Amino acid sequence: MLSCFAQERTVSGTVTDSKTGLPLEFFSVVSVRTGNGTMTDEKGHYSFSIYEKDDSIAISKVGYANMKKAATDADEQVINFEATVSSLNIEGVVVRSKSKYTRAQRLIMRVIKNKPQNDAYNNATFQCRVYDKVELDVKNIPENLQHSFFMKPLAFALKQMDSTKDGQKFLPLYLSESLADYYYRKSPFKERYDYLALKTSGNPNQSVLTYIDGLYKGLNIYNDNIKLFKVNFVSPIADDALDFYKYHISDTVYFGANRCIQVQFSPIRYGSNAFEGYVWIADTSYAIKSIVLHMDKSANINWVNKFELSQNFEPDTTKKFMPTRNMLYIDMNFPIMKNFGGIAKKTTVFKNVLINNDKIDTVFAKPIQDTSLFRNSQEDDTAFWGINRLEPLSKSEKFVYALVDTIRKIPIVKLYGKLISAGATGYYTIGKLDWGNLYNAFTSNQVEGYRFSMGFKTNKFLTKKFQYSNYIGYSTLDKKFRYAASTLFVLNKKPWSTLLVSYSNDIAASNDHRDEVDQNSIFASVLRRTAQQYVRLINNRQASIEYNKFFYDGFAIDASISNSILTPYFNVYYTYDGMTPYIVGQSGTENTYKTNEVAATIRYGYKEKYITQNYRRLSLSSNYPIISFTYTKGFKVDAGPFISNFNYNKYLATATQNFTDGRLGRLSYTLEGGYTQGILPIVLLDVQKGNDTYYYNRYAFNNMNQFEFVADKYVSLHAEQNWGGFPFNRIPGIRKLKWRSLTTFNAVMGDMSDENKLANHYTDTSSSVNYHFYIPNKTPYMEAGLGISNIFNVLRVDGIWRLTYRNNPDIPKFGLKVSLELKF
User: Fold this and answer.
1) Would you say the pTM of this structure is higher than 0.90?
2) Sign of the CA dihedral running 155, 157, 159, 165
3) What is the largest CA-CA distance in the chain?
4) 413, 424 in Cβ contact below 8 A?
5) 66, 166, 550, 767 — which has fewest CB within 10 A?
6) Are strands 9-17 and 81-83 parallel, antiparallel or unpaired?
7) What is the pLDDT of residues 328-350, one digit of tens each?
8) What DSSP string describes 327-369?
9) 383-350-624 Cα angle (round to 5)
10) Can you tell me the mean pLDDT for 302-322?
11) Nearest-angstrom CA–CA distance, 11 and 77
12) How many helices and strands (H and E) does the chain possess?
C-alpha cells in the first residue's frame, strides 16, 4: 500500500531508436519496484511518478531489447533511453507450430478464466478509504489570443504556464481533492460514498466535472467492456478479447515475492474500439498486478488526442490482489480548434480495503450527508489534509491552488466566464439573476408572426433551496402577450426530491426532451418542410404543481395536479356532449377545451447514473432498460374556478434503453404503449409525434406530419442501431474520415373506439372537413432509415423511407434529414 508519507518523484524522458535516433511510441516504461508505469507517446515521451527510495526504470517492447536504468533521489529527473533491436523472437516459432494459441494468448485465456475470483468487485461486498484528486487544464492557448487585449489581465498567469511531457503548454483551471469511505454491495447492487473532506480551487462547469468524476468510478479492467465518452471499448481481458487483440510476452519480473509476466497488446483491426498497452500478470493466481491502457489512434472517437488509464493492484493478507492506485489522463482538443484544448487528470488512491463484510448493510441504512454543507466546513482545513491525504501533492499541484485562486478573483475573468456560460446555456448572469433565454428571444410562426421574449431566473447566489424563473413575450401578428412563471423547490439533494409550482399561458412546446428541437421555434421555421397552413399549434394556459422524488434503489416517483385550458389554432370537429366543432375564424364555435388532471408516475432505472447540479438532476442513462408507468385521471367539473369538460383515464408504459457494446456499436430503443379511456377531442387523445422539418428528431416519426395519426390505444417502437465506424473503417481512404453508420426503424400500431371516431368526425369526408386524421389500425405506420454521422465531426445525414400509408396526401415517401451531433 502506498504510504501517505512516501516521497513522490517525477520521472520523465524520451525513448529513441539507437540507430536512427527516431522517437519510439508504445514502449512500456515501468517502475521495477512496483510495476507502476506508463507508455511512450508518438514523440517517444513518457512521464510518471515513483515513490520507492530505491527504484529503477525499465523499458520494453516486442522486437527491442529490454533496458533498465536506476532512478535518483531527485524530485524531478530525466531518464532517456536508446533502444536497440532484439535479435530474439520471444514468442518462439516452435511454440506457434505446436499449438493453436501462442504462449501469450494462453496466458490471457488463464487470466480470463480466473476473472471471477480476482475481480475485487465480484465479492459480496467491497469497502475502502478512497482519495480522489482531479485537475483540469487548458492547453495550447493560441499565441494571437495570448497577446490579445482580452488576455492582458492574465499575462502574469500565462507566464506561469507549465509544459506536458510532449511539450504542450497548459494553464491550470481547477484542482480538487476528496477523501471518502466507499461501500459497495454486489447483490442487490448498492454503493455509497461517505465523504470525510472536500477541497476545491476553481469553478468549472459542474456537468463537465461530474462527468469526469463519474467516468472513472465506473472503469473496471475486469469488465468485458470499458465505457469511455458513452462509447464502449473491448477490454484486453474480455471473455472474447482474443477476437480483438494481438498479444506478445515481453518480460518477466519479480515484484516483491510475486513473479509477474508482462504482456503487450494492440488491436487486430484498424478502427476497432480497442486499446494499446501492457499488463503485468501474477503467474500463479493470474491476477492483474498492473495495467496501462492507451486509446488506439484509429479508434472512432472525436477530439480526444490521448486517453491513458492505469490501474495498479497489490496483494492483501489473503494474497488477493486489491486496487491500490488508479490514474486517468485525457488530452483533447476543443471542437473546430486545431490544438487548443483541455487536459483532465484524475488520480485515485485506495487504502484499508476490506471484502465480504457481512455487516455492511448497517452502513447503507444510515442517512446520506449533504456534501454542499460539508464542503464549506472542511475545504480549508489545511491541518486535516496534511495528516489524512493519502498521496502528497506535487510542487506543481501546490502551485495550482495558489494560481487558480488568484485568477478567479480577477474581474475580467469573471466576465469571460459569464460570456462562455451565456453561449452554452442561453442565460447571462448578473448578480443573483440569470437573464435569458437568449436563444428564445426571437421566434416566428403563422399565429404570432414575429415574437420577442425575455425573462430571468434566480441562481445559486441567491439561494440553492429554490429557483424562481419567468419570461414574457409579445407577438406582432395577434398582438398578444404570452408568459410563464415557476418556482422549483429543492426539498432534498440526497435522495433527490423537488416541488415545482408553475403557471403558463403560451403556445405549447412540442419538444419533450432537452436535445429535441421545438417545432414552434425560429430554427424549426427555417427548416420547415410543410406549408405554414399545415402547422398545427395549440395554446395552453396551465397551472400545475409537481412533486418528484428519487430513491437510492433506482426507483423514482412523480405526482402532479394541473388545470389546463387548450386553444387549438386549427379546425377541431369534436361534437360530443353538446360541444360544437371549432372552426378557425368562425364565430360562435367552441375554441377551448378545459381539463383538470391528477397524474402519478413510477420509474425504475437499474444502475442509472446521474449528473446533479444546483436545481437539476440529469440522467447519464444506463446499460439496462429504464421503465416507467404513468396513470392520469381527468376530472369533469361543471362550476367554479376550475371548470373542466372531460372525465377520462390515461395509462402510459415506457421502456427505454441505450445498450452500448464495443463489438456491435450502440443500440437505442424506446418501446411505448398507451391507452386513453374517455370520449375526447383529438388534442387530448394519443397524437403520434410527427416532424414537419428537415431536421432529424430521434423522438419522432420523421416522415409523419404533425397530427397526421391519432389513436386512443397504441404501441410504438423507436429503434436506432449505431454501427460505429463499420463499414467505413474497412475502406481505405474513407476510414480516416471516421464516419459512422446508423440504421433506424420506427413503427406504431393503434386503434380508436367507435365513440371517439364519431365524436371527432373521423368518417366525415365532406368538403367541409379540411383536416382529416388517420388511425394506424389495419396496418402499422412504419418508416426505416440509413444514416451517416460524424461528418466533419458534427454533421449527421439520414435518409428515411416511409414504408406504409404512402398514399396519404402531402406526405414525403422519402426524406433527407440533417442534424448536428456533438458526440465523442
Assistant:
1) no
2) negative
3) 97
4) no
5) 767
6) parallel
7) 888 888 766 677 888 888 899 99
8) EEEEEEEPTT-SS-EEEEEEEEEEEEEEE--TTTHHHHTSPPP
9) 125
10) 89
11) 5
12) 13, 43
